[in-house]
Design brief:
Blueprint (H helix, E strand, L loop, with lengths): L1 H17 L1 E18 L2 E7 L7 E11 L2 E12 L4 E2 L20 E8 L3 E9 L1 H7 L11 H8 L43 E8 L8 E8 L12 E10 L2 E11 L5 E14 L2 E12 L9 E11 L4 E12 L6 E12 L4 E13 L22 E12 L1
Length: 392
């Protein structure tokens, strides 16, 4: 009898263990780039010009009856420094080693096959999630990913300053480069349109699993604290055969706890044989005590071609416009190629050209890499990059 009980207990323990799992996962990317403009040249290595280097842990437990618990802890990495975070991620108030570890995700969730999933903790903003689905160059650099990171990178909503990349005098894009799109610090982040503390709900998929609706609340909105920087958002995804359509809206409060900034992003991809067509637009608008900042529009177009099973090519055209000053504009054109050694390892290369007009004169074409140029209007930059990526 005792042996039977011991055997039963051992079986129960084995079953419980089988229903729980923890997965180590990540992405390692190291690229080399060179940028030239205004008679200057700059070369460096970066862990996010191609794709973002990350290290994460995912866990899942089957609770029975279609209910499961899960978690996700994800940190950005800098392979160059061998540290968590990077020049665009981590606690920007410090130098050297970053002090906050899981900069990209730190949440626990409950998921029901009938009701949907609720995530609580540090989550990705829904506009940020949508941007990744509409990339027009297959890389972080040379297009959509770079300029949408610039246009959504605001810390005035949290009372920390003005929009990064905006000049404090004329409120147009003539400040810093657009490489700081994922900088974050504190509970809701200095860049609250990227990663923020909050609650996210994803409803069960509808229309034969083609339609997904997700909603979220960010910042202090649920904590009873001062609601500057807090906000809400929602996302709609629709997939039907070769067509995928995305739409998302997200906003943040200003320092007076009123809506100060709103980003609307929409776009679609269409797969036609070996060709994938991409078209998208993101509009950033300012209200109340942020209304003095100029509204912005990012437009991205792209063609991605599968040359064969291992090689793809991409051509992207992206603009960032100041909606209140027609002379202020950034235009990026990028051509990229990727070669897949396997499902997890690939090499990439690319060439890009960027031009800034009006007061918009410091936007870079490299995600995580500064422009080499000066402040002269109308400067045209050119750049190349090569890199290696491995995911696990």
């Amino acid at each position: 009898m005792k042996k039977s009980l011991v055997a039963l207990a051992a079986l129960a323990a084995t079953t419980a263990f089988a229903q729980s799992s923890v997965t180590l996962y990540g992405n390692l990317d190291q690229g080399l780039y060179n940028n030239s403009d205004s008679g200057k040249s700059q070369s460096s290595i970066s862990s996010n010009i191609g794709s973002t280097s990350t290290l994460g842990f995912r866990g899942n437990e089957d609770l029975g009856g279609g209910l499961s618990a899960n978690f996700n802890l994800l940190s950005e990495l800098s392979l160059k420094e061998g540290q968590v975070g990077s020049s665009t991620s981590g606690n920007t108030a410090t130098t050297g080693q970053k002090t906050n570890l899981f900069t990209r995700a730190a949440y626990i969730a409950l998921k029901s096959t009938d009701i949907g999933e609720v995530q609580v903790g540090r989550i990705q903003d829904l506009v940020w999630q949508t941007g990744g689905a509409l990339n027009n160059t297959n890389l972080n650099s040379f297009g959509w990913a770079t300029l949408t990171a610039t246009s959504t990178n605001s810390d005035k909503a949290t009372g920390q300053g003005i929009v990064t990349g905006l000049d404090s005098a004329d409120k147009t894009f003539s400040g810093t480069s657009g490489a700081s799109g994922t900088a974050n610090s504190g509970a809701i982040g200095l860049s609250p349109y990227n990663f923020a503390g909050g609650i996210q709900y994803a409803a069960p998929k509808l229309l034969n699993n083609q339609l997904q609706i997700t909603a979220a609340t960010y910042g202090a909105a649920f904590a009873g604290a001062k609601k500057n920087g807090a906000g809400v958002g929602y996302r709609i995804e629709y997939t039907s055969g070769p067509l995928a359509v995305n739409y998302a809206v997200s906003n943040r409060n200003d320092t007076n706890e009123q809506k100060g900034m709103e980003v609307t992003m929409y776009g679609a991809t269409y797969q036609a044989g070996p060709y994938k067509l991409v078209g998208a637009q993101a509009k950033t608008k300012f209200f109340n005590n942020m209304a003095d900042l100029h509204d912005l529009t990012v437009t991205g177009l792209g063609i991605i071609y599968d040359l064969n099973a291992k090689t793809d090519l991409a051509l992207g055209y992206t603009t960032l416009k100041d909606d209140e000053d027609s002379t202020t504009k950034t235009t990026l054109v990028g051509v990229t190629a990727r070669y897949k050694f396997s499902a997890r390892t690939l090499a990439y290369a690319g060439y890009g050209s960027g031009k800034n007009t009006g007061t918009n004169n410091k936007q870079t074409m490299f995600y995580g890499g500064p422009s080499a140029g000066n402040t002269a209007a109308g400067v045209t930059s050119s750049g190349i990059l090569v890199g290696l990526r491995h995911s696990f």
